[in-house]
Amino acid sequence: MSESLSEIVLNALKAAQTVGELPAFEASDACLERPNETAHGDWTSTIALKSARSAHMNPRAIAQAIVNHLENDTSVKKVEIAGPGFINFYLSTGAQNEVFRQVLEQGNDFGKSDVGHGQKVQVEFVSANPVGPLHVGHGRWVALGDSLCRVLEHTNYQVEREYYINDHGSQMDVFGRSLSKRYLQLFQIEKDHNTDLDGTYTILCADRDKFVEDEEDEHPETHPYMDDFNKTLGENAYGGTYIIDIAREFAQEDGDKWVNAPSDKRVVEFRERGYKKMLAIIKHTCEEAHCTFDVWFSERSLYKKDANGTNAVERAFAALDKMGCLYRTDDGALWFRSTKYGDDKDRVLIKSNGDYTYFASDIAYHYNKFQRVDHVIDVWGADHHGYIARVNAVCEALGYSGEFEVLLGQLVNLLRDGIPVRMSKRKGVMITLQELLDEVGPDAVRYTLISKSSNQTIDFDIEAVKRHSNDNPVYYVQYAHARICSILRRACNLSLEEAQKPGMDEVGKRAIGSDYDLSLLTDPAELALSRKVSEFPGLVASCARERAPFKLTHYAEELAAAFHAFYNVCQVLPSPGRPVDSELSRARLAACDAVRHVLALTLHLIGVSAPEHM
């Protein structure tokens, strides 16, 4: 409806200009918006207000000239000029309800638009180091990044989902040494306690548990192996139980083969095998969270030589050097002139000792990105805020000004029945994303972690999201979808099992029939439902423009509420003692099925399933 109204408004504007009621000025947008209150119409145009400066006229006079030349349209019941120059449109009942038919005809294409104009955009998110399992904070980036990608795809962007694997650098060596130490401890315990591998594993895990319990380190005698681990490697080593688990797997696979091997050889072996295992675990967790990536990009690849003997880092440096953006200091360090592009200081790329900084990889990586796509969106934690200026400076220097953006996300606080779940980075205690998925399910995780703007902290109450009550938003929305499926099955006299073969789309068609009169839907609850459904296309477009998929959860709850309100006052199917006109019933079934489609589509865009029964 907004498209036809837009055409009507712009045609009226041109007609007014043709006869001289308005001066010539360009206007390609009718500036249609949804009024907050239905008393102000179904749609309002602010074109007169936004054209006042170009026309050098009072906006109310512009509005009047446009209204004078509006074409007669049966879908428009009334037009009013309000306030300083708002043009308010009141639609006929039939026109308001036509959105139900539009949904049923378009299906999963409903709400698609050309916001992206086919632009190739890459969204890089999660990108955790492959040295441990994903934690709950990473889960927020899964939900945000993947939901954004789905929204962008629905608005005609060509989207590439990318995970940057930080597999180059000192953290990988620390990971290898951590595995090596735990492997050696397993065989030391076996020798000291004369037990088998299962026994040594139990002792080592119990030792770590005692270390976690001993918050003030008052009883070191209860956790000697953990203390030895930290003393040998330092407290920045990876001390989680998962390290013991992987070390145990190596012991099961290889026995004591590596006990007397050279330390450096053992560390490299375990680093590489552990890396593959962790990456497989990370990929599995992402898939469990309904998220798959198009590209898994290895940081190591940036340092591999090509056929010409250069690597990606060197090629990126060469591009910057050609533009005069690099210089060397007397100590031999290589610097990037980032202050030239708005950063607060220049950044070192190669230290005086010849070591590359982490920023060197970032430069090469983002240079590589822009060889593949037009626009880059990075999803980072809020603690990386200070890093934006330097990466933006590089993108600008390389000629990609305005094509790099960052979405920052705040933390996730885990609670259980309102009580914070205690975690400790120093002790290596955390709730992994996989554990959360296993306990509450991927739908509850995805929905809850996308339910707020990324710049707001999320309180995730584990027990609350498991409750089957209307106080649980994901349950409330999914129940609305399941309820509609039940109504449609009853309309066709089909059981749940019988409806599975044709599928709900076919069941809906059978229930409604080929001909239905939507003008019969005149109850305020019916009109409120059609209005809410009609908001969906504009909402998805705004979610894409603003990079704000969290709005979809709010909309899903509002649509579910509108449906429940409708169902409570509008009888859809006849029942004993409560007849309903057959034509009205079919019109209401059409409304129900349209809502089902939009609920399912909304949930799909945030990576949540739409169950057909609950």
Q: What do you see in this structure?
A:
- By secondary structure, the chain is an alpha/beta fold.
- It has helices spanning 2-18, 47-55, 59-68, 93-106, 136-154, 170-193, 197-213, 224-233, 241-254, 263-288, 312-322, 358-369, 388-397, 433-440, 442-449, 473-491, 496-500, 504-512, 524-534, 536-546, 551-569, 582-605, and strands at 32-33, 43-45, 76-82, 86-91, 120-124, 158-165, 295-298, 326-328, 334-336, 347-350, 375-381, 404-409, 412-416, 419-420, 458-461.
- The strands form 4 sheets. The protein has a 5-stranded parallel β-sheet with strand order 7-6-5-11-12, with helices on both faces. The chain has a 4-stranded antiparallel β-sheet with strand order 1-2-4-3. Strands 8-9-10 form a 3-stranded antiparallel β-sheet.
- Helix 5 (136-154) packs across helix 15, helix 7 (197-213) packs across helix 8 and helix 11 packs across helix 12.
- The chain is flat and about 90 Å long.
- It starts with a helix and ends in a 9-residue tail after the last helix.
- The model has no long low-confidence stretch (mean pLDDT 95).
